Amino acid sequence: MLVISSTQRKPIFLSLTFLFLFLCLYFSPLRYLNSKISTTNNENSSQGSSDSNDSPFEFRNSENADRFILDLDHQEKNELKPWENTTRANAAFVILTRNSELDDLRKTMQQLEQRFNHKFNYPYVFLNDEEFTMEFRDLTSSLTSAKTQYGIIPREHWSYPDWIDVEKADEARRRMGEQGIIYGDSLSYRHMCRFESGFFYRHPLMEQYDFYWRVEPSVEFYCDIDYDPFLYMQENNKKYGWTISLLEFESTVPTLWKTTKDFMKEHPEMIPENNLLRFVSEDKGNTYNLCHFWSNFEIGDLNFLRSKEYSAYFDYLDKAGGFFYERWGDAPVHSIAVALFLNKSEVHFFDDIGYRHDPFMHCPLDRNVQKKCHCNPDDNFDFTIFSCMNKWLIA
Ligand SMILES: Nc1nc2c(ncn2[C@@H]2O[C@H](COP(=O)(O)OP(=O)(O)O)[C@@H](O)[C@H]2O)c(=O)[nH]1
Ligand SMILES: *[C@@H]1O[C@H](CO)[C@@H](O)[C@H](O)[C@H]1NC(C)=O
Ligand SMILES: *[C@@H]1O[C@H](CO)[C@@H](O)[C@H](O)[C@H]1NC(C)=O
Ligand SMILES: *[C@@H]1O[C@H](CO)[C@@H](O)[C@H](O)[C@H]1NC(C)=O
Ligand SMILES: [Mg+2]
Question: Where are its TM segments located (predicted)?
Answer without folding.
Answer: 12-33
